[in-house]
Amino acid sequence: MSKRPALALLAFSSLITSLDFTIIYVALPDIARDVGFSAHSTQWVVSAYAIFFGGLLLLGGRSADLLGRRRMFVLGMALFGAASLLGGFATSTTALIAARAIQGIGAAVLFPATLSLVNTMFEEGRQRIRALAVWAGAGAGGVSLGALLGGVLTSAFGWQAVFLVNVPLVIAGTVAAFLVLRADGPRDRGRFDVPGAITGTAGTTLLVFTVAQGPETGWTSAPVLIGGVSAVVLLAAFLVVEARSAGPLMPLRLARKLGPVLAVIFVFGGTMQNVVYFLTLFVQNVWRYSALVTGLVFLSLSVVIATANFVAERLMVRIGIRTTLISGLLLGAVGSALLAAGMVADGSYWTILAGILVYGAGMGTVFPTVFAAAGTGVAEQEQGSAGGLANTALQVGTGVGLAVLVGIANAGSAGLDGEALRIATADGLRTTVVVSAALTLLGLLAAVALPGRAKADDTTVAEPVAAA
């Protein structure tokens, strides 16, 4: 049986979860205006998704290993679709944030099942790298394609459409799962680490909450202090639970093995992954681009990312995973710096085009490479856990990084309005992207600590996957 239809479906699911992280970026001003979010609290429409996505990924990965990957794939699709329906009809801030949180839970079930299916369906080496290039290409492309699609849908149908568009997509994906994915056989139903899931998720949530609220309410305010202390206690308890558990969500042995990769992914999530958010705010709030034009700005970014994904596949084979990853991080840092240079109040698309091209090349290179690194040398029965660890690092890094960078972006705009506010917004967003570029370089310190990996075997020729 050809593996191409299955790979196409797995790439499609990666596209959905990644796309939904950014599809609402362009719609955020309309959402804030209609639903009633403040300038600072708007980030929770994004962070609620990232927090629950990141907090439950370990449980989702373990569930895929124990209960079956196709079962978890279908369950994740169903949760994602139901939450999207709720978000499309939300009329209050509470309902909308709840919908985004449930979307994050669905994605936490779906994403590690998808990644472990890719890693177990294709043999390690060139065959898996090719499959990961297709899967990661869809995921990385979804980050920028989401902004494009969000602009088109918001302009044509209103912000509700960015939620409701998911409903037919998940129905199609669920039906296809029963047609092209192999049924789960008998499973070794080990014990779930429920205490680990509770302490890990609660600790992560409170950590991001603390970092997000600090700039707004003050770092010495009671909610921030209580949240910070509670986060440290819960995360410490999580490590103790994992060390003693017979079936841990995060096997410490596996976490130590993947430590350098997880550090790179965390930095990537907190920096490069968040640049699209601030670039979207800039072109709308400073240059006053419409939702549709804003979406079209990201078309070139989507094309560059897709191209770089397939170049990364060949680089991993020829020069190795570590060197490819270092190259991608350097491109991301330089591209972000070029973007910042072009983000001026009297600029235009042409002043940021060079940054878009270089930054996109970095995004498209790093995304498939980190997941190839995370799955290399991991036993089949632990692929779900490895995928959960990798994606937890990505989502937690994204949530924490977004909270920190939002505080920097909003630092000088309090009490301003009119043209003064527009200039201050431009300065704050530009500074934020400069900081992101500098912090991206921290990933190099972890990347050079990766073991030198042998190149993929060129003789292991994969089944053609171009159609996917």
TrEMBL record:
- Listed GO cellular component terms? plasma membrane
Q: Which UniProt keywords apply?
A: Cell membrane, Membrane, Transmembrane, Transmembrane helix, Transport
Q: Where is the Major facilitator superfamily (MFS) profile domain?
A: 6-455
Spell out where the chain crosses the membrane. 42-60, 72-91, 97-120, 132-153, 159-180, 192-212, 218-241, 261-283, 289-312, 324-344, 350-374, 386-409, 429-450
What are this entry's molecular-function GO terms? transmembrane transporter activity
- Localization per Swiss-Prot or TrEMBL: Cell membrane
PROSITE patterns recorded: MFS, SUGAR_TRANSPORT_1
This protein's major location comes to membrane
Q: At the top level of its lineage, which domain of life is listed?
A: Bacteria
The answer to whether the entry has keyword Chloroplast is no
Q: Which InterPro entries match?
A: MFS (IPR011701), MFS_dom (IPR020846), MFS_trans_sf (IPR036259), Sugar_transporter_CS (IPR005829)
- Signal: present as a keyword of the record? no
Q: Which SUPFAM superfamilies match?
A: MFS general substrate transporter (SSF103473)
Recorded topology in the membrane: Multi-pass membrane protein
By what name is this protein known? Drug resistance transporter, EmrB/QacA subfamily
